[in-house]
Design brief:
globular, Rossmann fold, alpha/beta, 10 helices, four-stranded parallel β-sheet, 3 domains, about 325 residues
Length: about 325
Amino acid sequence: MPSRCARRFAESRPLSRAKEHLGSIAVVRAGLRSLVIAAALLAAASASAALRVVATTTDLAALTTAVGGDLVIVESIVPAGIDAEAFESRPGDLDKLRQADLVVRIGLGYDFWLDALVVRVGNKRIMRGGDAYVDASAGIPLLEIRGQGVVNEGGHAHGVGNPHYWLDPEYAIIITASIAEALVRRAPEHRDRIVANRERFLAELRTRLQKWSEALAPYAGATFIAYHNSWPYFARRFRLNVVGYIEPKEGVAPSPAHLARLISLARTSQVKAILHEPYEPEETSRFMAQKLGVPMLKLAISVGSMPDARDYLALFDYNVATVANALRARNP
């Protein structure tokens, strides 16, 4: 018979193995916790190392993200679907600007309210002429040139030209060049990545631009009425023709006499549709469309202003498809 000592030893072996197993589990859990903590610290370090960019609009935010990739954290001041020309700043916008490594704006008076905000922040680097300031309109061939100063018209500020230049997709080449230059200036060690990001985006832009142009080519010269004067760059790029505007002046409601003249012009010009921005009141546009027997097309004025306009390229996918489908339905 086994001795009492031997029996105790035999009984203790399962306990020892159980303790070893529990010990192994504890080591694994400790290792996993360490990995999680290390990953969190790495993510925090990466976030803190990323350049914080504040763009005035969602369009510029989308283009900055395309160029900067994971090197940037981008915020826009004007929310999606809000009229930037009539925007009123909020207290949180100052906090965004205080933390900004770079500021990107539309310019031309479109986001005139930014100047007062950056003065309050007091950081000269994000003011005009600063090394952390980008006016994306620099180098853009402007339409509807008016003069040398900014004019505030009934709550809408237009400067030396029509400010809706981002609605010509080819101008993204110029805009992203300005953004890339500023990012390289702030983070020269990442120059190659920034350049590669931009080239990748532009390659996709050129592919889609060809498709957009082909989709609208059969309707070259088609005429439209627009609610607001937002579409001259879009119309010129795709050879469309906006012959009149429901707003007689930016931010001013149309009079009955103005609408009567516009209806007469539209009939003479054989207008195909009414173009409408998502944030504008729809009643008059719908009235005009009914009177003329044409569709009202709600187009994305900015990234996020319509559900399908998720990014800069998707904005044009949506707008081109909306216009082409409407014109195809009228001319099957």
